[in-house]
Amino acid sequence: MTIIITGTSAGIGFTLAEYFGKKGHKVFGLSRKSVESKYFKTIPTDITDNTQVQNAIAEVLKTESRIDVLINNAGMGMVGAVEDSTQEEILKLFNLNLVGSVQMMTGVLPKMREQKMGQIINISSIGSEMGLPFRGFYSASKSALDKVTEAIRYEVSPWNIQVCTLHLGDIKTNIAENRVKTKVSEPYQKTFNKVYSLMNAHVNDGTEPLEVAEYIDQLLAKKSWKAHFYFGKFGQKIGIPLKWILPQNFYENLMRKYNQMD
Questions:
Q1: Which of 78, 123, 186, 221 is most buried, by CB atoms within 10 Å?
Q2: Positive/negative CA dihedral, 240, 137, 166, 22
Q3: Cβ(232)–Cβ(169) under 8 Å?
Q4: Which is nearest to 107 in space by CA: 97, 94, 120?
């Protein structure tokens, strides 16, 4: 298969690109930083720039006759209180996590329609299903991508194009180095420090990226997809059905305890 993966300079994206390249697929990694690998080709691309996206897709089609899979992995985290977040920080986050992913889908869909098949995985987060303390805008950006995914599934289904979101729990990567971190004002500082320390501990104890690659490999083999798939440790995944069935105030109290805010 010909597979395009975004955000391949490090972390999950790099692991995915090498994993599928080793399995014999033709893999193109789109990231702002170029990395050397014998298993995939990097096309330096800022996916928030639609001209660069279109040029990258054209580069792929110079050598390949089809595009089978797009994995929208590129994204960033953002931490801080809602009150302290600036317009610039919010727009930067949404421009990558939402707009960039949409531009990538827009880039590959003409070829997928032409070949009457294709698979698109939008990497989301278990945190998109709930407003996480001090990660409100991250949750919101991924939730927005979830809803766009649900909508586009209807629109592209006549061409046998499948689209889903893959909601990940904490994965052991260096995501903390690339987060947007807002200035945290004094009223929130004490609580934020506790939550932020726990947040990083969860990442350090997270699932290995290779396990994500193996799960996606299984997902690509499925004949039909649901809109949403969830992958992560049980303690994080269980938060989703609990939110659906528990009274709101009771659920919020559980989340406070989980985040050690009490």
A1: 123
A2: negative
A3: yes
A4: 120
Residues 9-65: tens digit of each pLDDT = 999 999 999 999 999 999 999 999 989 999 999 999 999 999 999 999 999 999 999
Q: Which 3 state secondary structure label does DSSP give 72? A: strand
Instruction: Count CB atoms within 10 A of the CB of residue 106.
Output: 14
Q: Do residues 182 and 78 make contact, with C-beta atoms less than 8 angstroms apart?
A: yes
* Spatial distance between the Cα atoms of 251 and 242, rounded to a whole number of angstroms: 7
DSSP line for 171-234 = BSSSHHHH-EEPPPPHHHHHHHHHHHHHHHHHHHTSB-HHHHHHHHHHHHH-SS--SEEEES-H
Catalytic residues: 9, 124, 138, 142
Number of C-beta neighbours around residue 152 at 10 A: 18
CB 164 within 8 A of CB 225: yes
Looking up tokens 């350090």 gives: 204
User: What SS3 class is residue 6?
Assistant: strand
Nearest residue to 209 (alpha-carbon basis) of 4, 35, 71, 10: 10
pTM of the model: 0.94
CA distance 6 to 101: 9
Alpha helices in the chain (DSSP H): 11-22, 50-63, 87-94, 101-115, 136-156, 175-178, 186-204, 209-221, 234-237, 239-245, 248-258
The DSSP letter of residue 24 is T
Q: Which residue has tokens 């499948």?
A: 162
To 10 degrees, what angle do helices 11-22 and 209-221 make?
50
Of 13, 15, 236, which Cα lies nearest the Cα of 128? 236
Phi and psi of 7, rounded to 5°?
70, 50
